[in-house]
Amino acid sequence: MFQLRHKILQVLHDQHATTLQLLERLEDLLRRSRPDNPPPADDPQVAAFLSELAAVMEHEVGNHFAFEEEHLFPRFSRVSDPGIAAMLGDEHEVIRPLARRIAEVARTARAEGFTPAAWEEFHRLGAELVEREVFHIQKEEMGFLPALDQILDPEDAEALAETYSNVESG
Ligand SMILES: [Fe+2]
Ligand SMILES: [Fe+2]
Fold this sequence. Notes:
170 residues; mainly alpha; Four Helix Bundle (Hemerythrin (Met), subunit A); 85% helix; binds fe (ii) ion
């Protein structure tokens, strides 16, 4: 893990770490319970994980994605390769419905347990989400955030941090 100069980028970096950790736990759950073998959603550990997964995924594709799209991709495109920001934005479009749907299935399962069909869907979407989202975050961590850290003007970065903290506190 590295340290970024600008607080706003460090905040996004920390959120990536939280999401990656959740995705790792999701992968574990998928590995432990095959598509035809739903885990008990009322098991306290499974139940807590489902709630956390739903909350983190909704935040990731909500506030986090929106902030990147609205504020960071345009700044990056102005001084660096716009193709990179366009590619990251396209990935958001694919990941967003997946994450929203999995959050929905997780919440329903939390309340009512997994039906065989719900678990099969969760398993399928979960595997795709892990693959796409981990790859997406890796790209942002390796290229995008470090480059932005060089590009951003300190005053602009301060203002962005303020904007995001207002968004986050709702
Ligand atoms: Fe992103
Ligand atoms: Fe991100």
